[in-house]
Design a protein that fits this description.
The structure holds two protein chains of two kinds. By secondary structure, chain A is mainly β. Chain A has strands at about 5, 10-15, 20-25, 30-40, 40-50, 55, 65, 75-80, 85-95, 100-105, 105-110. The chains are: A mainly beta, B mainly beta.
């Protein structure tokens, strides 16, 4: 079991560029989510999905898109990167009911 | 309003001593779950312990125990016999239901330093 994998580990973007952060899990978890972590702010939920074809917004969704075409994959798209999106991004997955949440290793994104 | 409150920005403890990390929460749900995660300097988020709102006994996982006081809405993490490797950021989180979906809400975290 690889658990939750994320690519890339590091990324530098220029303002206005777009990119996709990849996330995959091999535990057949229904629930997947994306968080961003900023200093002093803890983790904040961006988007989440309770199953293939179903996504919903979290606390800070603006500037991000997601899709869930398979159970395994949950990519996060930055449409037009802004310096305010400089952060560490974590993908996570768990069983829908009473499951502990497993996190990926994170992606450190810098937008200049 | 903040759902998860961790008021201690940082704590220091001597190796081998016990330490309590505070967490209070706010919810009107009857069914919810409380989690603690550890984030070492390497950055990964490591699950430590889980307490369900209907669990009658306090959760324990090795050196970690959760002091769950439902009436006071507190879910403090107790680490017994601290080790140098326990130095890290610690996050309390709550799973709550909103609009039929479940979300995990995190506190801002606190930094624990274990001194030799």
């Amino acid at each position: 079991n690889a658990g939750v994998t994320q690519t890339p580990k590091f990324q530098v973007l220029k303002t206005g560029q777009s990119m996709t952060l990849q996330c995959a899990q091999d535990m057949n978890h229904e629930y997947m989510s994306w968080y961003r972590q900023d200093p002093g702010m803890g983790l904040r939920l961006i988007h989440y999905s309770v199953g293939a074809g179903i996504t919903d917004q979290g606390e800070v969704p603006n500037g991000y898109n997601v899709s869930r075409s398979t159970t395994e994959d949950f990519p996060l798209r930055l449409l037009s990167a802004a310096p305010s999106q400089t952060s560490v991004y974590f993908c996570a997955s768990r069983r829908l009911v009473r499951g502990e949440q497993y996190f990926g290793p994170g992606t450190r994104l810098t937008v200049t | 309003a903040q759902k998860i409150t961790q008021t201690q920005p940082g704590m220091f403890v001597q190796e081998k001593e016990a330490v309590t990390l505070d967490c209070t929460y706010d919810t009107s749900d009857q069914s919810y779950g409380l989690f603690w995660y550890k984030q070492p300097s390497s950055g990964e988020m490591i699950f430590l312990i889980y307490q369900g709102s209907y669990d009658e006994q306090n959760a324990t996982e090795g050196r970690y125990s959760l002091n769950f006081q439902k009436a006071r809405k507190s879910a403090n993490l107790v680490i017994s016999a601290s080790q140098l490797g326990d130095s890290a950021m610690y996050f309390c989180a709550m799973r709550e239901s909103q609009g039929g979906s479940e979300k995990l809400v995190f506190g801002k975290g606190m930094k624990l330093t274990v001194n030799p």
